Amino acid sequence: MKTLIRSTLTLTAAVLISVAGAHATVRTEAGLTESAASKSETYRLNVPTEKEISTTQIRLVVPAGVAISRFQVTPGFTRTVTRNADGLVTEVVWKGRVAPMEYARFFFQAKNPAAAGELVWKIYQTYSDGSVVAWDDADPARGPASKTTVK
Ligand SMILES: [Cu+2]
Fold it and tell me: Are residues 51 and 127 in contact, defined by beta-carbon separation less than 8 angstroms?
């Protein structure tokens, strides 16, 4: 019985740790945080619901110099884009539902900037109660922004 309790506690701790690490992120399709200058890359936005209510909206702020060309179809979600004067997509908003214990993935193709540097992706995750979780480095410990190193 003692052993059972201990292993249950260990499992609970492990689950808590994995949930804490499951932030909303942008990675390459291969799961990497680096890519090459001027490369046409496929990026993957991963959004886990981390509350007991659903995620209803995800807003992505696209780093300057990144040229999004195409989105993979994501059934169940609508997408709205904002473009700048040059026609580049600067923001993307997806609306839909990511229920508790679920995650959603959004894939898009983009051309990286010609210059090396760091891309900072800001993600704003809205829940059904209207609360917004900011993954934008405003509070790096709790809401880190995703970064891609362009080499
Ligand atoms: Cu998390």
Answer: yes
Could you tell me if residue 57 is inside a domain? yes
Distance CA 93, CA 59 (A): 4
Which range has the worst mean pLDDT, 12-26, 44-58, 83-97?
12-26
| 32 CA to centre of ligand 1 in angstroms | 18
Instruction: Name the pLDDT band for 21 (thresholds 50, 70, 90).
Output: low
Residue 48, both tokens:
């886990």
Tokens of 54: 């659903």
Whole-number Å distance, alpha carbon 95 to ligand 1 midpoint, is: 20
pLDDT at 1 (0 to 100): 46
Q: How far is the CA of 8 from the centre of ligand 1 (A)?
A: 22
In-domain check, residue 3: no
Tally of structural domains, the chain? 1
Domain of 52, CATH number, reads 2.60.40.2230
pLDDT of res. 19? 47
Rounded to the nearest angstrom, the distance between the alpha carbon of 50 and the centre of ligand 1 is: 7
Ligand 1: centre distance to CA 107 (Å) = 20
Q: Is residue 73 part of a domain?
A: yes
